Amino acid sequence: MTYPTYFETFDIKKMLADYPIGDALWQKFKGMSRDELFAIQNERFKKVMDRAWQVPFYQRHWGAAGVEAGDIQSLEDIAKLPTYSKSDLMKSLEEHPPLGDFSGINTYTKETRPSMVFHTTSGTTGTPQPLMFGPYSREVQNLLLGRTYRFQGLPAGSTVQSCYGHGMINGGHYIREALIHFTNAIFLSAGTGIETRSVQQVNLMRDFNVNVLVGFADYLKRLADVAKEHGIEPGKDIKIDMISGHFGQEGREVIAEAWGGPELFDWYGIGDTGAISAEGPDHDGLYIWEDAQFVEILDTETDEVLSGEGVFGNQVVTCLFKDDIYPIIRYNSNDVTEIMPYSNSLDLPFRRTRGFMGRSDNMVKLRGINIYPTGIGPILDSHSAFAGDYICVVERDASGRDEMIVRAEAKLHGEQLHNEMKALLKQRLGIEMQVELTEPGSLAALTGIDSRQKPIRLIDNRFKK
């Protein structure tokens, strides 16, 4: 039986020409007009649309909205298509187990199907969502992150330590592929503190002369504290030149000071799409990789498309390169951002955002892990002392660190029960959070459990002024 191997399914030289990296990025895009950029986007969009019409998920989703193939002639017509979100993907999985019908994998024969990279989301609230990538779309996604690091000034010949998780989730694997395939860095896949103990992580940094860290802000800050606790001085024993991670609204000064003053860079992406936008050397917002990602901003209440500078709302993403497995067209991330003024000091045609500014729904990203407050209940239910009602409160302290406090009604009280509840949540969610036990019935006024069809499960105080 013959079938194509991974690197036989696409032309790597053409991919590098289409999606330039390093010096070639500047040569192609510096001074380019928005009209020239739109022409590139439109050509790629039409190719992705041709593929998406073959996928059962889109046939059903678009058909239900009364959209026919002839209705979409160019990227200018994209708003005629309905958006979709995580809930639509989970419904697809429920109705078409185990992979759903959104990837299009079943439109290939076994002999013509390209190789597939397969990961899942964490599955905090139940069934994990499969994340599927064909070779071409996976490598473009890897390239965009490699482009991000090099755009941010990753020094040649760096030694990079990654604190992203591995296992079935996509994060650490994606970072590893991007750095190995599209930079000349030595890559240390340390992972999270669960995979490699924190004290061992700082020893690795010292022993292998790590000069670049990548990961989530909270854990990177924690590692600096661990280093000091064990007599290792960041900035002297570990000399970090650059940290690239996810800062959003986090306090950067605290992290930079903790590591001896390296340059910090933010970037934004989601598991399905890969890197969408990246902070540049000018430290003036995050540049959207618009040759590969088409981003719309939608009103969080009405889903109306918002245009112009200064608009604030949900990021809706269309991947202009995913034309093999799992096309992504108008995916509503429910991540909120703001579009910045068009002009920029780098003379690039790409729009910029202010980065991740929060969620419009009730999902909370806590130290890199997606926490769904509605998923806390089933976990608490597994303990016999839980009395049935609870609410999650998210706070941000002066240093920019986010914390979630789970207030839960309990039939019993005491230090032992408190510790058991904390251990239960950490075991199931992979992250430690605070727990406050209260008397049965005491939370009803906050949750509305006696008066609302859907009780309130989250109070987010981070963005309150």
Automatic annotation (TrEMBL):
AMP-dependent ligase C-terminal domain residues: 368-462
Domain of life assignment: Bacteria
Matches recorded under SUPFAM superfamilies: Acetyl-CoA synthetase-like
InterPro entries (alphabetical): AMP-bd_C_sf (IPR045851), AMP-dep_Lig_C (IPR028154), ANL_N_sf (IPR042099)
PANTHER family: BLR5969 PROTEIN
Protein name: CoF synthetase
Native source organism of the sequence: Alteromonas lipolytica
